């Protein structure tokens, strides 16, 4: 009875982290583990962690406490912390959280089998070395939780923008791009397995570059040419680097989705400068105007941080003004959370009271709710091509998918199935979803 040992992985944080979990899954299945969704039967528990805000770390720490219980029941159980928290806290995490056996930073996943050997011998094992060139380009991700329709492809790692509030440059290290051949090959393989959508991932995809001169626009085009039936998305674009060339490439390929995530962070020039975002509000507006001109009908979403160091009511009003002007279709909105050792932590005071951050965040959320509803309402009566992804959660009688603008569209299932492109006429909406029915044609 030589049963394979079982690995359970839980993932927090951004899409890059979810993509990394698939790389870890691949490395571990090559080393005689199989993944399980049932934590109770695991021989090995990994948590792939995020450090972006304090509450992301708190959630992981609370989860680690719960894992103690499994360790009591199964003394040989090994617990590993992966990802950004592992990288940020290093051995400190082992001394603070005694149940942790293995600590592995985002560039050290190839070393996992060796680290596990050490842990199985009863010692703590750690590797948090960051790399200048690791991209895991040759590793074929294992996608156990996939819907079989839509997949992520990592195209680069790291970040060197050093926005003053952000921990990512410290947890993910130097920016590096992955060989375009391997990216295109992965997209081709996914298409032949039945996938119909890929999302190219990086912290700042616009600065993708390879030695043969391939920049992001060129890479995007090569992936779009894999097949007209393969939808291509990407995230995230930094406003300072969003070029007209990229927008023209998108315009030339209908299968590159009409949706751009362009994090603004703040509408105030003074705050943008303190954030070290390297653009001001007029540059940002002029980038939005370029999108509207070159890609009419393109959806625009954003990230906003409220309550950054020294933010005044006036700065806050400028953020609300920017939101109204840009009329975002969707937004992720956060209270500023000071991260140890970042530039902002060293140079500025986290001086906006928690209660004020709370009020401002609520105003931002309320406004976005209104903007999202207005954007969705304007779609009523329109017909979109929807890529069906899964049976709708609420009832098995409906399919759920997204249109090119990345809006979720729910419609009666009829004889359609995940992976189908369906023309759907929108008949109703909520702030979060469109509802409609399939139309012939
Ligand atoms: N690389 C991407 C975003 C990565 S993090 C980009 O630059 O657009 C995702 C979002 O988290 C950021 O856009 C920002 O809005 C938010 N964020 C990052 N650090 C934060 C912090 N210290 N406090 C609150 N929000 C933060
Ligand atoms: Fe963080 Fe800025 Fe890099 Fe985004 S671009 S990951 S916000 S440092
Ligand atoms: Fe979090 Fe690391 Fe991503 S800090 S947002 S998991 S890069």
From TrEMBL:
Positions that bind [4Fe-4S] cluster 2: 159, 163, 166
All residue ranges annotated as the TRAM domain in the record: 377-440
Domain MTTase N-terminal, first and last residues per copy: 5-121
Domain Radical SAM core: 145-374
SUPFAM superfamilies with a match to the protein in the record: Radical SAM enzymes (SSF102114)
Enzyme Commission code(s) on record: 2.8.4.3
UniProt-annotated location(s): Cytoplasm
GO molecular function, one term: metal ion binding
Family under the similarity heading: Belongs to the methylthiotransferase family. MiaB subfamily.
Protein name: tRNA-2-methylthio-N(6)-dimethylallyladenosine synthase
Annotated source species: Lentimicrobium saccharophilum
Gene that encodes it: miaB
């Amino acid at each position: 009875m030589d049963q394979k040992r079982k690995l359970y992985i839980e993932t927090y944080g951004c899409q890059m982290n979810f993509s990394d979990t698939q790389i870890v899954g691949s490395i571990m299945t090559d080393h005689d583990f199989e993944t399980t969704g049932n934590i109770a039967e695991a021989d090995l528990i990994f948590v792939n962690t995020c450090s972006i805000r304090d509450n992301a770390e708190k959630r992981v720490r609370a989860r680690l406490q719960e894992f103690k219980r499994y360790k009591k029941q199964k003394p040989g159980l090994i617990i590993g912390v992966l990802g950004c928290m592992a990288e940020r806290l290093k051995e400190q995490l082992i001394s603070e959280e005694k149940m942790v056996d293995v600590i592995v930073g985002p560039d050290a996943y190839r070393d996992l089998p060796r680290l596990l050997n050490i842990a199985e011998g009863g010692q703590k094992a750690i590797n948090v070395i960051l790399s200048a060139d690791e991209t895991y380009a040759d590793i074929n991700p294992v996608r156990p939780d996939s819907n079989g329709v839509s997949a992520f492809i990592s195209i680069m790692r790291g970040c060197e923008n050093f926005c003053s509030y952000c921990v990512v440059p410290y947890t993910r290290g130097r920016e590096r791009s992955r060989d375009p051949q391997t990216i295109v090959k992965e997209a081709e393989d996914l298409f032949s397995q039945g996938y119909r959508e890929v999302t190219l991932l990086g912290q700042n995809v616009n600065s993708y570059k390879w030695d043969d001169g391939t920049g992001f626009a060129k890479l995007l085009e090569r992936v779009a040419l894999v097949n007209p039936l393969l939808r291509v998305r990407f995230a995230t674009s930094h406003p300072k680097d969003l070029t007209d060339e990229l927008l023209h490439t998108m315009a030339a390929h209908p299968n590159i989705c009409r949706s751009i995530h362009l994090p603004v962070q703040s509408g105030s020039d003074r705050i943008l400068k303190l954030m070290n975002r390297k653009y001001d509000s007029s540059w940002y507006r002029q980038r939005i105007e370029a999108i509207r001109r070159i890609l009419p009908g393109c959806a625009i979403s954003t990230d906003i941080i409220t309550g950054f160091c020294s933010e005044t009511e006036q700065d806050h009003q400028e953020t609300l003004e920017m939101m109204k002007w840009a009329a975002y279709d969707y937004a992720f909105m956060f209270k500023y959370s000071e991260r140890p050792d970042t530039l902002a932590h060293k140079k500025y005071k986290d001086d906006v009271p928690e209660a004020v951050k709370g009020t401002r965040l609520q105003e931002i959320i309320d406004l976005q709710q209104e903007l999202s509803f207005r954007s969705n309402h304007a779609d009523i009566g329109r017909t979109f091509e929807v890529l069906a992804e899964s049976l709708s959660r609420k009832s098995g009688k409906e399919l759920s998918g997204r249109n090119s603008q990345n809006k979720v569209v729910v419609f009666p299932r009829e004889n359609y199935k995940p992976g189908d492109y369906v023309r759907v006429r929108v008949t109703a909406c909520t702030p979060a979803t469109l509802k409609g029915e399939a139309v012939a044609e």
